[in-house]
Design brief:
There is one protein chain. By secondary structure, the chain is mostly beta strands. The protein has two domains: 133 residues, Elongation Factor Tu (Ef-tu), domain 3 (Beta Barrel); 50 residues, Roll (Membrane-bound Lytic Murein Transglycosylase D, Chain A), CATH 3.10.350.10. Helix content is 14%, strand content 36%. The strands form three sheets. The chain has an eight-stranded antiparallel beta sheet with strand order 1-4-7-10-9-8-2-3. A two-stranded antiparallel ribbon has the order 5-6.
Length: 221
């Protein structure tokens, strides 16, 4: 932060503020000093198992702050009609530029009003403000187009229906049957007899012996 002190010759010209649409408001005075900064932004980058490092995270945006006084020589007269438009600039988020400032820092930049404080110093007999001090805090306005539209959520894809597991068929052992012949008849390949035996191990502990009338489960495929 650099504090700039400006020597002014007499007569002093008042500084004014203008908006992007051309409106113009007098500040009724010009600050003799202001705080100005243009420092790049830095941040800490954490590294697992290593020391963190500092790196620039963004370009430097100009910031500026100053204080000036608005007063009426006749302390019985209000200055609220002068202060109110300036306060509205900050309330409405207006971008502003200062004219007849002390340096190009003030005149050549569009600013966003981050804060505008009004300190009442004197009041008239009717309690209206007749003297006040305005403190401005500003940041350089940067043109950034922001897409505020919300992303449309993608519809969840329906889960495919689970296919029911094939149901094993049943077969009652007839005289002369063997596991080989049953596999050849129902599965198309006698060599698949072991699949039938595994599926019916409780009733066929010995694949060489199957009893007539025993109900067997045959693999579906």
């Amino acid at each position: 932060m650099v504090r700039v002190i400006v020597a002014r010759s007499s007569p002093v010209k008042t500084m004014s503020v203008r908006t992007t649409d051309g409106r113009h408001y007098s500040l009724h005075s010009a600050p003799s000093k202001f705080d100005y900064s243009e420092i790049a932004r830095f941040g800490q980058i954490e590294r697992e198992g290593m020391k963190s490092i500092t790196r620039m995270t963004g370009p430097g945006l100009r910031t500026m702050s100053f204080t000036h006084t608005i007063a009426n020589r006749d302390y019985q007269r209000s200055i609220e009609h002068v202060i109110s438009p300036l306060v509205r600039l900050g309330r409405d988020g207006e971008r502003v530029r200062f004219v007849r400032g002390s340096t190009d820092y003030e005149q050549g930049t569009w600013w966003n009003i981050k804060d505008l404080q009004v300190k009442v110093i004197q009041r008239a007999l009717d309690n209206r403000i007749s003297r006040a001090e305005l403190s401005w805090s500003l940041e350089e306005a940067v043109n950034v187009s922001t897409n505020l539209s919300r992303a449309v959520p993608t519809a969840a894809r329906p889960r495919p229906a689970r296919t029911a597991a094939p149901v094993a068929r049943q077969y009652r052992v007839a005289p002369g049957d063997t596991l080989w012949s049953i596999a050849a008849r129902h599965l198309g390949n006698g060599a698949r007899w072991a699949e039938i035996q595994r599926l019916n191990a409780a009733v066929i502990p010995n694949p060489n012996v199957i009893r007539v009338g025993t109900v067997l489960r045959i693999p579906a495929h």
